[in-house]
Amino acid sequence: MSKTEQNKDRWIIDEKTGQPIPPMEQPGYYPGYSTLSQKAYWDATTRELIEKRVDHPPSIRFFSSEELPVMRAVADRLVPQDDRVEHRKIPIVNHIDERLAKEELEGYVYEDMPVDSEAYKMGLKAIEAMAQELYSSSFATLDPIRQDLILKSIHDAKPMAAQDAWKHLSVSRFWALILGDCLIAYYSHPWAWDEIGFGGPAYPRPYMRLEGGQPEPWEKPERRYEWRQPLTSISDVQEEMGGGDHPRQGGTH
Amino acid sequence: MNKPLLGKFRKPQTGEKILGPMQRISPEMQRFRDDEVVDYCIVGVGAAGGVLSQRLAKAGFKVVGLEAGPFWDTERDWVSDEKGSHELYWNDLRITGGNNPLTLGNNNSGKGVGGGSVHWAAFAPRFHPSDFRVYSEDGVGADWPISYDDLKPYYELLEREIPVAGPAYFPWGDPHGYPYGPHPMGGVGDILVKGCTKLGIRSCAGGPVAILSGSHGNRPHCIYRGFCLQGCKVGAKASTLITHVPEALQYGAEIRDRSMVFRVSMDKNNRTNGVFYYDRDGREHFQRAKAVIVSGYAIETPRLLLNSACHGHENGLANSSGTVGKYLMAQAGNVVAGRFESLVRLYKAPPAHALSEEFYETDPKRGFARGFAIQTVGPLPIAFAKQMMAAKGSWGWGMRRIMMDYNHWATLGVLGEILPWPDNRVELDHRKDQWGIPVAKVTFNLYDNDNKLIEFGKNKVEEIMWAAGAQEVSQEKRFAHLVGAARMGSDPDSSVVDKYGRTHDVSNLFVCDGSIMPTQGSANPGLTIQALAARTADYLISQGDTIFTSEKREMTPPPIRYQLSPEGTFVHGVPRLSFAR
Question: Which tens digits make up the pLDDT trace of B97-126?
C-alpha cells in the first residue's frame, strides 16, 4: 500500500458516491483558476512579496523541537489540508513561526493574557498535557479524531483534561489567537485564493465587473462538488465558540 | 510570462516619493534644527495632523509634524495584499481589557504619515445636527460646545478638498449633496439596497465616500479593486498623505517621520516649550516650539498627556479635570453576514459604497437613546475567515467549507452609537514599549443603553439581509473606530479642551484629533476629525502671535478662510439643499 493510500481515512468523502476523494492539486470550486497566472499584471512590490511567500516560506526559528510537532499537528486539524496533494499544502506553521520569532505584535494584548509568544508556549504545553493525561500519548501521534476531540473541547472553552495547565491562560482567547493565526497563514496564500475564487491583487490592472458576482475575463466560473468531512474528523460543524466575547478582528468600516 | 502592465517598474530618483501612479513629490524638505524654535509642533500626522500642518504652513507659520511611523511611498511600501499591509497599523504593545475589550491594531489604529486615513474605508458622512446636543435632547452623553452650524462650513470645505463622492441628494441629518458623483454598485451594495427597499427603508448608493469617482488633480479615479483598508495604491481614496501633506511640504512644513514623542515639556510659567522624542535610531531629542498640538488619536493622545505628568500637573498634563483618558468611545460595528444562492463576490468595489441612516436618530418607541447606521463592508479572505470564526464558531473542515463559499456571502455592518462613559478609559500600564515608554491600558464596557441599541441594530440588519434573499444569516459582535478620551467642553471641570481644542490648563497646548469628541453619533469619524482640524487651524491663524505670547483666550468664532484649501480644490459646488431643512 502506498503512503497516500494509508491516509485514505483522512480523505474527504464524495457526497454522491460515498467514496473517498483523493487529494487534489487544487481543491475548491474554481478548477483551472490561478491568481499567480496573473502576476504580470500586479505591481512590482506586491509581486515580489507574493512570490516570496510562495517560493521561500520562512524557516522555523521560534518553535522548539518539542513544540514543533504539536504545533504542526494542531494546525493540521485547525485548517486541515488532507484534500491537497503534498506539494500543494500551504506551510501554515512556518508563517506563524516567523511572526513569533520576530516578536511581531498585532497592536494589543488582553489584560488577562501574556504576550502572544508566551501564550503559544503555554497553550501548546497544555494541549500536549491533555493528550498525555487522556491517552498517554503525544498529541502529534494521536488519531486525527482524538486530536479533534481535544481541540473541540478548547473551542468550547471546556478543556477535557489538564485543567491545571489552563489555569493561567484564557482558553477562548488562546483559541482565537491560534486559529486566527492559522487563518492568516492559509488565506494569505495564492493557492487558497484559487480555492475560494478570490480575485487576488488587482493593481494596476483593475476589476471591471462589479455587479452580479460576474467573473473577470481571467477568472473561472464556479463548478461545485458535494463533499463531507473524512470519517476521522468532527470539525465540519458550525457551533458557537465557548467563553463569551472572542474578537481579534481586523478593520471593516 | 505576459508583459507587465504599464511596463517595467521605474526606479525613483533619490528622495522622490511616489504617491499613486500620477503623483510624485520630491520633498526638498525644510529641516528645522532641534534648538530652532518653531511656531507649531504637531504630534502625529494623521487625519487631523495632516490638515493642520497644511493650513498652518500655508498661513506662514513654521511647522514641524512629528510622526511615529514612516513617511510612505505608496508604490514601493504598500502592497495589494491583506497580510502584507501589517505595517500600516499601530502594532506596538497596548493592553486591552474590561468586560468588552476592544480589538486594537488593524481594527482602528494607524501609524505613519496619513495615520488612520491611510487604512480607513473612507465612508465620509457628516454628523447630524442632533449629535451636537445629545444631552439636551436625550438626557444622556454630553453636549458639544459647538453646534452643527459651526462645523457645517468646514464639512463643505473638506468634502471638496478630499473630495467626497456620493449622491446628489443625501436625505438624512442636514440634507445635502456631494461634489463628485456616486460610485457604481458592487454586489454587497445591491443587497443592501434590495433588502432595505423590500422593508421600506430608505437607502443611498455609491457614497458618501472619500474615494474619487472621477480623476481629481493628480489623482486617478477608483479602479474598484476592494483593497481600501490595505492603503490605496491607486491614490483614489483620500488620505492626508496625498490630499494635504504634499502642500504642507510645499509651504515649508517639515514632516519628521519615525519620531516618537514621549513627553510634552513645560516651562516655569505653565506654558509648553516643546516636546521630547526619540528619532528612528532611538536617540533622544528636544524640539522647541512656541505651541504644541497633540494629534495622536484617542489612545496615543491621552497616553502622551498622562506620560507628561510634571510639577503642577501631577495627574497628567492638562488633566486638572481628571477627564484625560476618560469617555473613550468605540462604535458598535456588528457585522451581519448572509449567504446567497447566487455569487456575490463581496471583495469587489470599495467596501464602503452604500448605506442607510434611517435609524440614526432617537426613537422613543425603541426603548433606548440614539441610533445606528447600516453600511456595506467588504472583508477580504482573512478578515472574513476571522469573522466566521467569531460568528459561527467555524474551524477545521467547517471553516474550509464556509470559505469555499466566500463568493456567496455578503456582509453588512451596523454602525451604532455607544455613549460616552467615564469608566471607558485609557490609563497607563506598568508595562513599557520598545522605547521604554509606559503603554496604554484600554478598558471598555458596554452599558444598558448600548446593549439595547446593539441588539436592535443587529436584528434590524439581519432582517434586511433576510429580506434581500439570504438563505442563511449570521452575525459577529465587534467594534469600529475610536474617539473621545480628551473631550472638549465649556466647563474646565469636566473636559480637557475648549471648543477650539485648546487645553483648559495650558494656554499654548492644543489637542486636535478624534479624542476631543464628546459624543460620536453613528457616522464614521474621519470627515468630522478633518473638519475639526480645519476649524482649529482657522482659529489659530486668526489669533496670530497671541497664542505664543499671551494667556488670553479669544472665544469668538474665527472667519472661515476658504483660500487655505489645497490648490485647485476649492470651488463652490457642494450642493446645499436648504429647502429640505
Answer: 999 999 998 888 999 999 999 999 999 999
